[in-house]
Amino acid sequence: MSHHHHFFRAFLRNLGHVGAIAPSSQGLADAMVDWIDWDTIGSVIEFGPGTGVFTEAVAKRKKEDTRFIAIERDPELAAITSRRCPEITIHEDCVSNVVPLAREAGIETADAIICGLPWASFSPELQDQCLHAMFEVLPPGGKFATFAYWQGLALPSGQRFRKFLHENFSTVEQSPTVWKNLPPAFVYRCER
Ligand SMILES: C[S@@+](CC[C@H](N)C(=O)[O-])C[C@H]1O[C@@H](n2cnc3c(N)ncnc32)[C@H](O)[C@@H]1O
Fold first, then answer.
1. pTM of the model
2. Which of 2, 60, 131, 140 has the most CB atoms around its CB within 10 Å?
3. Could you tell me the residue range of the domain that residue 162 belongs to?
4. φ/ψ (deg, to 5) at 135
5. Percentages helix, strand, coil for the chain, rounded to the nearest 5?
6. Ligand 1 nearest-atom number relative to CA 95
7. What's the burial of 179, exposed, middle or buried (CB within 10 Å: 0-12/13-18/19+)?
8. In this structure, which residue's CA is closest to atom 26 in ligand 1?
9. How many distinct structural domains can be found in the chain?
10. Lowest-confidence range among 35-44, 119-128, 160-169, 178-187?
11. CATH, residue 9
């Protein structure tokens, strides 16, 4: 079965948590990671790798000794990412547990967080829970990349998330739209 099939099955299993019908494109993966100077990154955490398209992009760019863990709540998708990137530790868990998982990997604070979570599909409570946990590991100066679909911006949850970014990060930049992604998407490139 292809990654697309596995992903779509996960979408049906976890409505509201997967938040997309297909894995992100290579173009979106590049837009997520190419604004970061990987020579300056000693520790990186990925939230919601799905089938591992961003995981692979980070693994290709990071320094050999950079610590890298990923956290994926869906067991089938976590297993696919583990097979795709066997050298990276993929935790089958919720990102709200990031603090103990990072400590276990020797990461006190993360220089970058690469995030695939579907924020616009989350309830306000789940958004707050995940954002609160994230700020416990992301220090001032830390980089945060997360993507959004244009139609998600029309939802109150998408607007709430965008407002949160502008209120809590010192810089928030928006990448050009990646039209070849299904659906078209852009990346919020933030620095705390
Ligand atoms: C929109 S998909 C993105 C997957 C992949 N990054 C990509 O772009 O193709 C969101 C992913 O986040 C995972 N996820 C959702 N809520 C999560 C949570 N609380 N903790 C960890 N992973 C979560 C889902 O299972 C899914 O794999």
1. 0.96
2. 131
3. 3-191
4. -70, -15
5. 45, 20, 35
6. 20
7. exposed
8. 18
9. 1
10. 119-128
11. 3.40.50.150
